[in-house]
Amino acid sequence: MLEYLFIAFIVIFCIQFIFYFFIFGTITFFKNKPTKSNFSKPISIIICAKNEAENLTKNLPHFLNQNYHTFELVLINDSSSDTTLEVLEKFKKKATIPIKIVDVKANEQFWGSKKYALTLGIKAASFDHLLFSDADCYPNSTHWITEMSQFFNSEKQLILGYGAYKKVSKSVLNKLIRFETLLTAIQYFSYSKIGSPYMGVGRNLAYTKSLFFENNGFVNHMKIKSGDDDLFVNQVATKNNTTFNSSPKSFTISTPKTTFKEWVQQKRRHVSTASFYKPFHKFMLGLFYSTQISFWLFSIVLISFLYRWEIVLPLILVRICIQYLVIGFSAKNFNEKDLITLIPFYEIFLISLQMFIFIKNLISKPSHW
């Protein structure tokens, strides 16, 4: 029995090696640069908000202060019950930058659907090139629009960005949130790099209005309440029309959850959309996760029985070293250097959390928006 377990362990190690070295490793030392498109077209920034009066008050000035020649803000009030609409109208009166307000009323057919609200906002946008973010986010620099839009050209119509989370000192939860975000970004950036993009995050994403309507927007998954970002990207992204920007000036910064319960609820919503990805992406993501958990489980069993420990232990150390190399250098590139020290421990915790979320989602559906 242990012999079969050992053989399976070797196979799993090889699969994990391929993932880290040949897929995730493609962006470890990679600095993507825009093609010489000299992009200078106007941009519509789209932000959808539901009961976000406080966050909008803090964050909208960062969007209005962007150093870009021509842009507008399309602000969507998605049936808020707080003072969100009043805050938006206040900014519109004072701003020197054009602001459009889309006030979405409750609709029985699309009750609670962010996709419906976003569709109305996209229709209202004056320009073809769209840049998306969230009410609880702010750009990492005044050149965010320039950084993201410079990758647009006649071929590239979808730009993936990194949505970082604000650092909170002496918070273990904050580091777990940021590590999970970092690992997710490494995955979707690397898949884009190898020509198989599968997701993006709505807090930092750009695509053209024409791409949206040519693919019927969210129609194919409108009944799925979540997935306005990753499901849309999974549907329309190709090797030819998609790229990404990993420059720190292109990042957005979000306010992280402050309780473990809130974060788990957020992750349940995110994970629930993965089952609707294309078969290849579901297979690859499932293979990575299953070999992750199997690697550690088999390692524990084999080491406990001291079975072939002289081979098992070095392979565990080799995998950890590869992790530190790939994730460590990526962490530096994404300004997340403080996460490097405890990478294996964060990974083991996330594996356990993902298993819990998977079981929880089987039992009950997560809430949305």
From TrEMBL:
Every Glycosyltransferase 2-like domain range: 44-175
Entry's transmembrane regions: 6-30, 283-305, 311-327, 339-359
One Pfam family of this chain: Glycos_transf_2
An annotated Gene Ontology molecular function: glycosyltransferase activity
Keyword Disulfide bond attributed: no
Family: Belongs to the glycosyltransferase 2 family.
Protein name: Glycosyltransferase
